[in-house]
Amino acid sequence: MSGSRTDGSEFSGLLRELIHIERQSSERDAAGSAIDQNDPIGDFRASAEPLGSGDEVVAGSRSALPRWRFTLRQTNAIRPGDMLTWSDREMVVQSVAADHRFIPRTFLQAEEKRV
């Protein structure tokens, strides 16, 4: 029998980071304009992995923003465009993908926001 575990306990041990997700509010002011407010989606445990800087076209540029890949337990709550906060870094979720093999999980790719 192989030494790999598929019960999720090993996966849980990798989720050491805490990320916070928010989404732009859909509420409007009296004039019908979007209000500058985010609605909390939730806090999630995740693992974080650097992906380097933005698009390959601008990768050599100083303006390329750092990108990260986060792995977390499977969730349908997060969408591209959501705001992600991690360790005082503010990011925008660029993509969301799911893996339903052995241990259901979600992968997020996020890019740091320019401050």
Features:
single chain, 115 residues, mainly beta, 1 helix, globular, disordered N terminus
How would you describe what is shown here?
The protein is mainly β and 115 residues long. It is built from one helix and six strands. Strands 1-2-3-6-5-4 form a six-stranded antiparallel β-barrel. The chain is globular and about 50 Å long. It starts with 8 loop residues before the first helix and ends with a strand. Mean pLDDT is 84; it is low at 1-5.
Task: Produce a short descriptive summary.
The protein is mostly beta strands. The protein contains one helix and six strands; from the N terminus they run H-E-E-E-E-E-E.
Write the layout of secondary structure elements.
Blueprint: H1 9-14, E1 17-24, E2 38-53, E3 66-73, E4 83-86, E5 89-99, E6 105-112
Question: How many DSSP-defined strands?
Answer: 6
The SSE string, one letter per element, is HEEEEEE
The total of helices stands at: 1
Which sequence of strands runs across the widest sheet?
A: 1-2-3-6-5-4
Radius of gyration: 17 Å
> Which blocks of ≥5 consecutive residues have pLDDT under 50?
1-5
Q: First CA to last CA: what distance?
A: 51 Å
Please indicate the percent range of residues in DSSP E strands (runs of 2 or more).
over 45%
Average pLDDT for all residues? 84
**Largest β-sheet summary:** 6 strands, antiparallel, barrel
